[in-house]
Design brief:
322 residues; 26% strand; alpha+beta; 38% helix; 12 strands; 4-stranded antiparallel beta sheet
Length: 322
């Protein structure tokens, strides 16, 4: 039996807290997007057959976890890697789910994500795969973190979801993939996060909580795109205060130059970078879609920068399995 899985990408607006004075650290904040997406198929096979190296590695892990003979995995569409769009988690869970389903095994994506090496810090990627929409996770207990050594924690679980809300379909997320060096990942990312946690300020956490409770959540509930855009842009800026020393500014260069100019557009309600970049995002609504696309392209041309512009609708559902 051939199984097909389709899963959306995600934007990561930042973390709720990185200060060890709080009971929980991290608390990812993000939203699921329709595009770009991962689309793949899997069918039973002896051994692993897959042309994509990343997917092949996840397929081997999935086969080991499930205790099955093997699988043939074909990638039809793929989320760009190291662009702050959650490519690794979505690919890993899509491969695992497709292989499980092709053998008639009920997939347990949240339970198996740690075995696939995904979801240690942020639960947003797993939530994106499971249910889509806007998500805030509860974070990890600060007492369980070993942030002062290089060893990965053992026995960790994906953070549970604290908030899941539907995003109005007429809201548009303009994703700009800048042609610059890739964002941080793997061990390099872990080292930087550990450095940030050691020096994170509690006053930043308190301000992020204020924005979430008083502006962000009410904006989604009231379907106010302008307030939502302001809130996620502000959360992203506040997260940048934590990362300023290790990424060369509140926003990772050269994203800061673009963000500063885009904030002046009246039809763009919020601007920020997703994860470590080099993708940046703008929040707008369907009525301003064409205008904003033109503004972004004109700005990139004026700065002499290259980048792909993706106009993405929110995705309020998890992965589709057929």
């Amino acid at each position: 039996m051939v199984v097909r899985v389709v899963a959306g990408s995600r934007l990561h607006f930042g973390f709720r807290n990185l200060c060890l004075e709080e009971s929980h650290v991290y608390g990812g904040i993000g939203v699921c997007l329709e595009d770009p997406k991962v689309v793949l198929t899997a069918e039973p096979e002896k051994g692993i057959i897959c042309d994509d190296e990343s997917a092949k590695e996840y397929a081997q892990k999935a086969v080991d976890i499930l205790g099955v003979e093997g699988a043939k995995v074909e990638i039809k569409e793929k989320i760009p890697t190291h662009m702050g769009l959650g490519s690794g988690t979505q690919l890993a869970l899509a491969v695992y789910t497709a292989i499980a389903e092709t053998y008639g095994i009920e997939p347990k994506s949240r339970e198996c994500a740690p075995k696939l090496g995904r979801g240690e810090r942020s639960g947003v990627g797993v939530a994106t795969f499971e249910q889509g929409g806007f998500n805030i996770d509860r974070g990890q207990e600060a007492s369980s973190l070993s942030v002062f050594d290089e060893e990965r924690r053992s026995g960790w679980e994906v953070p549970s979801i604290k908030t899941n809300l539907r995003i109005p379909e007429e809201w548009i997320f303009v994703v700009v993939k800048l042609e610059t060096r890739e964002g941080y990942s793997g061990n390099e990312e872990k080292k930087l996060i550990n450095f940030v946690i050691k020096e994170a300020r509690l006053d930043v956490t308190k301000e992020i909580d204020r924005v979430i409770d008083r502006i962000l959540i009410p904006a989604i509930q009231n379907e106010n795109c302008a307030e939502f855009g302001f809130a996620v842009g502000e959360i992203n800026r506040l997260n940048g205060i934590w990362y300023e020393k290790c990424q060369g500014g509140v926003y990772r260069p050269p994203i800061g130059d673009v963000v500063g100019k885009l904030k002046n557009s009246s039809n763009i309600f919020g601007v920020g970078q997703s994860s470590w970049g080099p993708s940046l995002y703008c929040v707008t609504s369907e009525e301003y879609r064409k205008d904003v696309e033109g503004v972004v392209q004109e700005l990139l041309d004026g700065l002499g920068m290259s980048g792909e512009i993706i106009m993405a609708a929110p995705r309020n559902k998890g992965a589709e399995v057929t």
